[in-house]
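Actin depolymerizing protein
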Amino acid sequence: MPAPSDILSDPDIAQAYEDVRSDKSETTWLVLKYASATSDSLKLDKTGTGDLAEMTEALGDDEAAYAYVRVKLGNDEYSERTKFVFVVWAGPQTKVMRKAKMSFQSGQVKQVIRTYAVEIQTGDKKELEADNVTMKLRRAMGANYDRQGSSY
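Tokens:
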């Protein structure tokens, strides 16, 4: 099995990860894709400065990809927090063998993309809509004061 450094040998990947993490960078997301249909090597496919919707547009229905996104949460500018989301994407038409390899390879990707609040494994773009991701992040953070009803 290839070492993480083999499948993630593109030096642009580490730089893009640092850019997404940095408040000084405009970059808010990155998408990694396989170099070819038969390759296990990943390459930096795209980066962007927009929101989740912009990142989601870079994910194809027949593709396997990994994405990393910076998301701002908060009720106002004073309570705003930055959280990071790791996405393991297997589009609905992704080949079965590629999907099978992804469970192992996502562990290798996590050796480079180490810091995130939630991981979302999906092939459904609806799960990557801002409201759904925000809800997952709030759940991961613990207290949720927006929720209807109470368990107290």
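Residues 83 and 146 are 18 Å apart (CA to CA).
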